Amino acid sequence: MLYKFKSKVTGDVIMLEANGRRVLQIIGKDGANSAPGIVLPEQMPAAIAALERAILQEDEARSAARAAALAQGLELPQADTISLRQRALPLLDMLRRCEHAGKEIVWGV
Predict the structure, then answer these.
(1) pLDDT tens across 36-77, in order?
(2) Is residue 23 predicted with pLDDT exceeding 80?
(3) What is the dihedral sign for C-alpha 48, 59, 109, 14?
(4) Three-class SS string for 5-72?
(5) 17 closest CA partner among 5, 29, 7, 2
(6) What's the predicted TM-score (pTM) here?
(7) Would you state the pLDDT for residue 13?
(8) Which value, to the nearest 10 degrees, does the dihedral of the CA atoms of residues 8, 14, 19, 25 take?
(9) How far is CA 66 from CA 54, 58, 62, 70, 72, in A?
(10) Rounded distance, CA 68 to CA 1, Å?
């Protein structure tokens, strides 16, 4: 299943179910529910801030893991997944552009 985020300002952003659900949970929307939803322009600053915080936390955790491995003389951990930063960038751009234009974002599966 896919999540499709749409707006009148940008092209669609499509995410796999697990990634879309995670992003929705981060911005405070019900990611467990696969029903369509909406992010209103007045909700976008909080959604942007929440995504940026989550990205920063993940980046710091990855850096800490690398530093700990270096300190112990272990092999550096491999990033075997795509980071939240990479996955969320298109949606962050959509949120910023829609906030600026005063337009909502809707999603469905």
Answers:
(1) 899 999 999 999 999 999 999 999 988 888 888 788 877 766
(2) yes
(3) positive
(4) EEECCCCCEEEEHHHHHHHHHHCCCCCCCCCCEEECHHHHHHHHHHHHHHHHHHHHHHHHHHHHHHHC
(5) 2
(6) 0.85
(7) 97
(8) 20
(9) 18, 12, 6, 6, 10
(10) 37
Residue 85 identity: R
Length of the chain: 109
Q: Which pLDDT band, with edges at 50, 70 and 90, does 10 fall under? A: very high
Cβ pair 56, 103 in contact under 8 A: no
Q: Are 107 and 3 in contact (CB under 8 A)?
A: yes
* Alpha-carbon gap, residue 15 to 107, rounded angstroms: 11
pLDDT at 109 > cutoff 80:
no
